Amino acid sequence: MHFVNFRTDKSIGNSYVRGMGKLVSTKEVADEIGVARQTVSRWVREGVITPARRTAGGQSRFDLDEVKRQLKEHLGEEH
């Protein structure tokens, strides 16, 4: 998947990708959903959720709305 117009707002350090909202870190996803950071990392490894992009350093960045959609879809498949 290729994203265009990536930019970083240096004043607040938030990442944005065209067509998406703010991209957040693994920790921010974990805090928002109420799970441990390690749980989010495990979900990525297991293919439950997919990062919107990876930084040059290999860190995941997520679109929170997309993560919530992916989790809802995954939970729907299990039930």
From TrEMBL:
<dbReference type="Pfam" id="PF12728">
    <property type="entry name" value="HTH_17"/>
</dbReference>
<dbReference type="InterPro" id="IPR010093">
    <property type="entry name" value="SinI_DNA-bd"/>
</dbReference>
<feature type="domain" description="Helix-turn-helix">
    <location>
        <begin position="24"/>
        <end position="69"/>
    </location>
</feature>
<dbReference type="InterPro" id="IPR009061">
    <property type="entry name" value="DNA-bd_dom_put_sf"/>
</dbReference>
<protein>
    <submittedName>
        <fullName>DNA binding domain-containing protein, excisionase family</fullName>
    </submittedName>
</protein>
<dbReference type="InterPro" id="IPR041657">
    <property type="entry name" value="HTH_17"/>
</dbReference>
<dbReference type="GO" id="GO:0003677">
    <property type="term" value="F:DNA binding"/>
</dbReference>
